[in-house]
Amino acid sequence: MLRYALQRIIMTIPVMAVVAVFVFGLLFVTPGDPAVVIAGEQASPAEVQAIRVAMGFDQPFYVQFGLWAQRLLSGDLGTSVFSREPVVELIAQRVGPTLSLLFGGLIIALLLSVPFGIYAAANRGKLFDRAFTAITVLNFSIPNFIVGYLLVSIFALGLRWLPVQGYVPPDRDLGAYLLGMILPCLTLGMGFASLIARVTRASMLDVLSQDFIRTAKAKGADRNRILFAHALKNASIPIVTIVGLGFASLIGGAVITESIFAIPGLGRLTLEAISHRDYPVIQGLVLVFSAGYVLVNLAVDLIYVLLDPRIRY
After folding, report:
1. Quick one: the chain helix, strand, coil %, rounded to 5?
2. For residue range 12-49, what is the model confidence (pLDDT) as tens digits?
3. Where are the domains of the chain?
4. Of 45, 98, 114, 199, which has the maximum CB count within 10 A?
5. What CATH class has 89-307?
6. CA–CA separation, 245 and 258 (whole Å)
């Protein structure tokens, strides 16, 4: 297990190197001159050229990338053009709310999807299974910003059970923090729940048709034991896979969800950086999101081994 884990960790190094080249290349393929953005539209050509030389924008790509990679290895992601703050500090200030939203959305998605997917598979063709299929297709087809506005209209504006928007740090008021995160996490997790639920149902149906399940039924094994101890364990690999692959969609959904509920996370920081054409911040955020996605897929690979020891390369 340890050897396999080390091999998978080592394999992520070239992946992150390719990601770093891609992220830095954004500066060159994005329309506009970063020096003009930094200097301002009213700056003279001489001032723009001075900034271009001072920041090394006049150097070849490989020279600029080498300097940027050197700073990156030392933990320096650059300085924001708009706020003049270090990018590392900006990301550190915003990462907490985003992690809360991502993990909260994932937990809600799993709680809503896996039990209902198992029950639908166990009752294939019945009324619940048909209703389950229709609801998951409908829910997955609705954009999460519409889901967010519907939840706000019902639970915040109508019933007044939950706050409309805003974020309270947990160290300031834990109760207000939990109440404020319910609607955002529901908004982010509901669409993802439909995808996981469909995969859970399909995977469970495949396992329930296997010979060892029929043998367990013939021996008189308890129905719940068959579903959870035998079938779910063997059906879990596709579920874990879709959770890992869907992490990217969670990140994309977090950008919209944070805007709807005024959560000061990395999603809102991304939109602010794009609107200000703040290239260092955009590069830092893309690198952080990419690293998170790579780490999640690494975790998925390691979970595979725990679920099925035969999966070792």
Report:
1. 75, 0, 20
2. 788 888 888 887 777 666 666 667 767 766 777 787 78
3. 2-87, 89-307
4. 98
5. mainly alpha
6. 21
